[in-house]
């Protein structure tokens, strides 16, 4: 999305330079100036336009981090938790069968 906004700003700057609204010299320095101008304009524009997507991505990342921190960190403790869960299920089945 940022690249699209930058591209649109660059095209607008190019059109403005073509019609003489921006005093830009021909050649590599002129193109560099247009690229810099497009970057300067597109940075705050993308900050404002993409704020909703940025907030959604931030919420998704923080949810993933919370899920990761809530579960046991080491492999050994994960295996122990799974074994305890299986033992509880096995004990419940044996209690139902009366063994």
Description:
The protein has helices spanning 2-18, 28-49, 51-70, 75-97. It is 83% helix and 0% strand. The chain is rod-shaped and about 90 Å long. The protein has 99 residues and is mostly helical. The mean pLDDT is 87. The longest helix has 23 residues, at 75-97. It has four helices and no strands. Helix 1 crosses helix 2 (28-49). It has one domain (2-71).
Structural class: mainly alpha
Number of domains: 1
Radius of gyration: 29 Å
Number of helices: 4
The separation of the N and C termini measures 63 Å
Mean pLDDT: 87
- Major sheet description: none
Q: Based on CA inertia axes, which overall geometry fits? A: rod-shaped
Low-pLDDT stretches: none
The tally of beta strands, per DSSP, is 0
% residues in beta strands: under 5%
Element order: H for helix, E for strand: HHHH
Helix content: over 70%
